[in-house]
Amino acid sequence: MRPQVVQRSTKPLSDDHQMVLKKLDDFEEVINNLDKPDTIMPTLKELGTFFKGEIWIHFAKEEDALFVEMAKFMPIEGGPIGVMLLEHEELRKANDEFQKGLEVYVRNPDDAKAAALIRQNGMNIIQMLRPHIDKEDNILYMMAEMHLDDTQTKNILKVYEEIEKRFQ
Ligand SMILES: [Fe+2]
After folding, report:
1. Cα-to-centroid distance, 45 and ligand 1 (Å)
2. Between 20 and 30 A from 13 (CA), which of 30, 55, 67, 133?
3. Ordered domains of the chain (ranges, CATH)
4. C-alpha 67: how far from its chain's center?
5. pTM of this prediction?
6. How far is the CA of 62 from the centre of ligand 1 (A)?
7. What are 79-85's contacts with CB under 8 Å, separation 24+?
């Protein structure tokens, strides 16, 4: 029988997803209440910090650890990994624009252009990330767990640790 590895390498990532999904609910709430800056400001700032920092640790774990090992048994181009990478790129762009809007909005919530940047890019992020997470949890991570051997899993977990240090 195959020895049981200590931990599945996709488990920390699917745990992250649960947290991200909660953040997206907060994001939706904020976007719907941009005309009430006093109410939403603390949550909006938290979202700004999260999307500027913490979420990129998750993306780095996928791009630099999990996908690297997965690429040994499936092609990147034209396959689900390629699609995920393209979506990460789109999310990066939308986040850059959201952060620009946020920077102005915290100083001047009456700035209509800033509110529009937050609204448009926030909606974009929410609409991209929910199905993105769904595809990863239900397709990509399942494929990973089917094919990754124990050595690969250990490699991935080791790179996760290095990434966490990199972001400290
Ligand atoms: Fe993910």
Report:
1. 22
2. 30
3. 11-167 (1.20.120.520)
4. 14
5. 0.92
6. 7
7. 80/135, 80/139, 80/140, 80/143, 81/140, 83/135, 84/132, 84/135, 84/136, 84/140
